[in-house]
Amino acid sequence: MSLESHLADLLHGHTSTPPTPFASNIVSRAKVKHATPGRVIFELPVEEDMLNGMDVVHGAVYALLIDTLTSICLLSHPSHPPPGTTVSLNLTYMSPASLGETLQVLTDVVRVGGRVAVIQAEVRTLDGGRDADDESGDNEVLTKKEGDSAKAKKEGKVCVKGMHVKYLVGRGPRL
Protein backbone atom coordinates (compact mmCIF):
# COMPACT_ATOMS: atom_id res chain seq x y z
CA MET A 1 0.00 0.00 0.00
CA SER A 2 1.42 3.40 -0.95
CA LEU A 3 1.99 6.14 1.64
CA GLU A 4 -0.74 8.25 0.02
CA SER A 5 -3.26 5.35 0.17
CA HIS A 6 -2.37 4.59 3.79
CA LEU A 7 -2.85 8.25 4.79
CA ALA A 8 -6.11 8.46 2.85
CA ASP A 9 -7.41 5.43 4.79
CA LEU A 10 -6.49 7.11 8.10
CA LEU A 11 -8.09 10.35 6.95
CA HIS A 12 -11.37 8.70 6.08
CA GLY A 13 -11.79 6.75 9.29
CA HIS A 14 -10.55 3.29 8.32
CA THR A 15 -8.90 2.93 11.70
CA SER A 16 -9.87 1.39 15.01
CA THR A 17 -10.76 4.82 16.44
CA PRO A 18 -13.62 6.45 14.53
CA PRO A 19 -13.55 10.25 14.42
CA THR A 20 -16.32 12.30 16.00
CA PRO A 21 -19.31 13.13 13.73
CA PHE A 22 -18.36 16.84 13.61
CA ALA A 23 -14.78 16.07 12.70
CA SER A 24 -15.59 13.36 10.19
CA ASN A 25 -18.15 15.55 8.43
CA ILE A 26 -15.53 18.17 7.58
CA VAL A 27 -12.26 16.21 7.65
CA SER A 28 -13.63 13.48 5.37
CA ARG A 29 -13.75 16.03 2.54
CA ALA A 30 -9.97 16.41 2.63
CA LYS A 31 -8.05 14.53 -0.05
CA VAL A 32 -4.38 13.59 0.10
CA LYS A 33 -2.87 15.29 -2.95
CA HIS A 34 0.79 14.51 -2.33
CA ALA A 35 2.70 12.67 0.38
CA THR A 36 6.34 12.09 1.13
CA PRO A 37 7.64 10.90 4.51
CA GLY A 38 6.98 13.71 6.98
CA ARG A 39 5.27 16.01 4.47
CA VAL A 40 1.66 15.80 3.24
CA ILE A 41 -0.49 18.14 1.14
CA PHE A 42 -4.27 17.96 1.48
CA GLU A 43 -7.07 19.76 -0.39
CA LEU A 44 -10.74 20.29 0.41
CA PRO A 45 -13.56 22.53 -0.77
CA VAL A 46 -15.08 25.22 1.46
CA GLU A 47 -18.72 24.30 2.07
CA GLU A 48 -21.55 26.05 3.92
CA ASP A 49 -21.23 24.13 7.19
CA MET A 50 -17.67 25.47 7.54
CA LEU A 51 -18.74 29.13 7.59
CA ASN A 52 -19.34 31.52 10.46
CA GLY A 53 -21.89 34.35 10.61
CA MET A 54 -19.71 36.51 8.35
CA ASP A 55 -19.75 33.86 5.59
CA VAL A 56 -16.06 33.00 5.92
CA VAL A 57 -14.45 29.81 7.26
CA HIS A 58 -14.84 29.67 11.06
CA GLY A 59 -11.63 29.73 13.09
CA ALA A 60 -12.60 26.48 14.82
CA VAL A 61 -12.72 24.73 11.44
CA TYR A 62 -9.13 25.77 10.77
CA ALA A 63 -8.15 24.49 14.24
CA LEU A 64 -9.88 21.16 13.55
CA LEU A 65 -8.15 20.81 10.18
CA ILE A 66 -4.70 21.69 11.47
CA ASP A 67 -5.04 19.46 14.55
CA THR A 68 -6.22 16.45 12.55
CA LEU A 69 -4.16 16.83 9.37
CA THR A 70 -0.86 17.52 11.16
CA SER A 71 -1.50 14.39 13.24
CA ILE A 72 -1.93 12.37 10.05
CA CYS A 73 1.22 13.95 8.62
CA LEU A 74 3.12 12.86 11.74
CA LEU A 75 2.11 9.26 11.04
CA SER A 76 3.94 9.52 7.70
CA HIS A 77 7.27 10.31 9.38
CA PRO A 78 10.00 7.68 8.81
CA SER A 79 10.60 7.24 12.57
CA HIS A 80 7.02 5.92 12.94
CA PRO A 81 6.21 7.85 16.12
CA PRO A 82 3.46 6.47 18.37
CA PRO A 83 0.09 8.20 18.67
CA GLY A 84 0.12 11.22 20.89
CA THR A 85 -1.89 13.99 22.41
CA THR A 86 -1.80 17.72 21.75
CA VAL A 87 0.43 19.80 24.02
CA SER A 88 0.07 23.02 22.07
CA LEU A 89 -1.81 24.13 18.98
CA ASN A 90 -0.95 27.66 17.87
CA LEU A 91 -2.71 29.32 14.95
CA THR A 92 -2.18 32.67 13.29
CA TYR A 93 -5.16 33.78 11.22
CA MET A 94 -4.09 35.83 8.23
CA SER A 95 -6.86 35.97 5.62
CA PRO A 96 -10.42 34.63 5.28
CA ALA A 97 -11.61 31.94 2.88
CA SER A 98 -15.12 31.89 1.47
CA LEU A 99 -17.71 29.47 0.14
CA GLY A 100 -16.65 27.87 -3.14
CA GLU A 101 -12.92 28.30 -2.62
CA THR A 102 -10.59 25.31 -2.33
CA LEU A 103 -8.31 25.04 0.68
CA GLN A 104 -4.88 23.50 0.44
CA VAL A 105 -3.36 22.36 3.74
CA LEU A 106 0.41 21.89 3.64
CA THR A 107 1.78 19.93 6.59
CA ASP A 108 5.40 19.29 7.47
CA VAL A 109 7.03 17.46 10.38
CA VAL A 110 9.62 19.83 11.80
CA ARG A 111 11.02 17.55 14.51
CA VAL A 112 10.37 14.23 16.21
CA GLY A 113 12.15 14.05 19.55
CA GLY A 114 12.16 11.67 22.48
CA ARG A 115 8.90 12.92 24.00
CA VAL A 116 7.36 15.45 21.60
CA ALA A 117 6.91 16.09 17.91
CA VAL A 118 6.49 19.44 16.19
CA ILE A 119 4.47 19.73 12.99
CA GLN A 120 3.80 22.95 11.06
CA ALA A 121 0.90 23.69 8.76
CA GLU A 122 -0.18 26.33 6.33
CA VAL A 123 -3.71 26.67 4.98
CA ARG A 124 -4.10 28.61 1.74
CA THR A 125 -6.61 28.95 -1.02
CA LEU A 126 -5.92 27.62 -4.50
CA ASP A 127 -8.43 29.84 -6.25
CA GLY A 128 -7.54 33.18 -7.74
CA GLY A 129 -3.87 32.77 -7.02
CA ARG A 130 -0.75 33.05 -9.10
CA ASP A 131 1.38 30.36 -10.71
CA ALA A 132 3.08 28.15 -8.15
CA ASP A 133 6.38 28.49 -10.05
CA ASP A 134 6.55 32.23 -9.25
CA GLU A 135 9.71 32.50 -7.14
CA SER A 136 9.04 35.93 -5.64
CA GLY A 137 9.17 34.39 -2.16
CA ASP A 138 6.26 36.37 -0.71
CA ASN A 139 3.97 33.34 -0.93
CA GLU A 140 6.44 30.58 -0.07
CA VAL A 141 5.05 27.10 0.58
CA LEU A 142 6.42 26.16 4.00
CA THR A 143 10.10 25.24 3.78
CA LYS A 144 11.33 23.99 0.41
CA LYS A 145 12.97 20.61 0.76
CA GLU A 146 15.44 19.15 -1.70
CA GLY A 147 13.74 16.71 -4.03
CA ASP A 148 10.20 17.80 -3.09
CA SER A 149 8.33 18.03 -6.36
CA ALA A 150 4.91 18.85 -4.88
CA LYS A 151 3.64 22.20 -6.10
CA ALA A 152 0.31 23.89 -5.79
CA LYS A 153 -1.79 24.23 -8.93
CA LYS A 154 -2.40 27.88 -8.18
CA GLU A 155 -1.52 29.45 -4.87
CA GLY A 156 -3.96 31.99 -3.56
CA LYS A 157 -3.85 33.74 -0.24
CA VAL A 158 -2.44 32.31 2.98
CA CYS A 159 -5.35 31.92 5.40
CA VAL A 160 -3.77 30.39 8.50
CA LYS A 161 -0.36 29.27 9.69
CA GLY A 162 -0.13 26.79 12.54
CA MET A 163 2.28 24.92 14.76
CA HIS A 164 1.23 21.69 16.51
CA VAL A 165 3.23 20.17 19.35
CA LYS A 166 2.29 16.59 20.25
CA TYR A 167 3.32 14.54 23.25
CA LEU A 168 4.35 11.08 22.03
CA VAL A 169 2.71 8.54 24.32
CA GLY A 170 5.08 5.82 25.54
CA ARG A 171 8.18 7.23 23.89
CA GLY A 172 11.43 8.20 25.50
CA PRO A 173 12.53 8.14 29.13
CA ARG A 174 10.23 9.36 31.92
CA LEU A 175 11.33 12.60 33.52
What share of the residues does DSSP label as strand, in percent?
A: 25-35%
Let me know the number of strands. Answer: 8
Q: Write down the domain tally.
A: 1
Model regions low in confidence, pLDDT < 50 over at least 5 residues:
129-144, 146-153
Q: Label the overall shape.
A: globular
Q: Gyration radius, to the nearest Å? A: 16 Å
Keywords: Hydrolase
Region (Disordered): 128-153
Family: Belongs to the thioesterase PaaI family.
InterPro entries: ACOT13, HotDog_dom_sf, PAAI_dom, Thioestr_dom
Helix/strand layout:
Blueprint: H1 3-11, H2 21-27, E1 31-36, E2 39-45, H3 59-75, E3 84-93, E4 102-112, E5 116-125, E6 130-131, E7 154-155, E8 158-168
GO molecular function, one term: fatty acyl-CoA hydrolase activity
Biased composition (Basic and acidic residues): 141-153
Family: Belongs to the thioesterase PaaI family.
Structure commentary:
Keywords: Hydrolase. This is Acyl-coenzyme A thioesterase 13. The chain is α+β, with helices and mostly antiparallel strands and 175 residues long. It has one domain: Hotdog Thioesterase (Thiol Ester Dehydrase, Chain A, Roll), CATH 3.10.129.10. The chain is built from 3 helices and 8 strands. A hairpin with a 3-residue loop joins strand 4 and strand 5. The radius of gyration is 16 Å and the shape is globular.
